[in-house]
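Quick one: co-fold with magnesium ion.
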Amino acid sequence: MNPNRHLMTLDEFTIHQTRQFSNATGELSTLLRDIGLACKFINKQVNKAGLVDIIGSYGKENVQGEVQMKLDVFADNTLINVLKNSSDCAGIASEENEDFVAFDDDHSVHSKYVVLFDPLDGSSNIDVNASIGTIFCIYKRISPLGKPCTKEDFLQKGRNIMAAGYVIYGSSTMLVYATRLGVNGFTLEPSIGEFCLSHKDMKCPDNGKIYSINQGNSGKYDSKLLDFLNYCMEEDQASKRPYSHRYIGSMVADLHRTLIKGGLFMYPADSKNTNGKLRLLYECNPMSYIVEMAGGMGHTGKDSILDLAPEKLHQRVPIFIGSKNMVEKVLEFIK
Ligand code: AHM
Ligand code: MG
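Sure, here it is.
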């Protein structure tokens, strides 16, 4: 690395942003730094996945009845440990654990923020070296300070999110995070171990040429959705169809592409899974927040994802997310 080249680190960037607000305390920046630190630990394990005994299943199922991979468990424990020791986190909820965890030490009960995360999304891709990711979002708690946080702090609408982001462990490792000020991407510079600003003010294009769905499930889809899939495959030069179909099976990777190139990612309800597969609190809310802050849209087919009032920690919802015009088009077909 050339030391003369100015690289803005994640820390420098968030501190710079904080200075724009006279009443900002810097707690959110500290939390983002702590999440970044946990993800660097996770990244190290992901990178050497083929070399050490970390590939494969852990031998247990998680709260959703899904087989836990060793890296799922490592990522979950790492995030919990780092956030427990963070000065600004009152508690966490994770896709891997049945209940939320309220940190009840003297310091944490006075912390303003709670963090929700999917520690390792797309974990069925671990064994084949395809991209996986960590997804997170941060809320200001609504329960009184001075006591442990409560479930209500975690069951807030996506619209209340203060910051959300993901880390993609791909051909390079990137942290993308969104606040109301916009969406920015930071690439991990391995020689100095810092996330450095590489994708400033990311915008999701209004249109795209790629649709992303597990089309193998077509036999269980509603006929209106099948009509839309046929529309995507139809030839029409004016609207640049047929669209290309791309599906990695790792939401972070599919949505990272969608955010940069435009497109539409769908995990719909089907006749077997009537609420779809993806979790509102750990996957759909944070990703919809990021995509909306970049100018795109996240929808269930009936409501905007961010307007849903969550009922339970592990609630699943259908999702149509990505370029604004493409989401609006699928809504025309399925509403
Ligand atoms: P996970 O959190 O257990 O990894 O599951 C979520 C993943 C998403 O990343 C991805 O979009 C989806 O599951 C793929 O599911 P399917 O294999 O049913 O297409
Ligand atoms: Mg997941």
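If it helps, The chain has eight helices and 15 strands.
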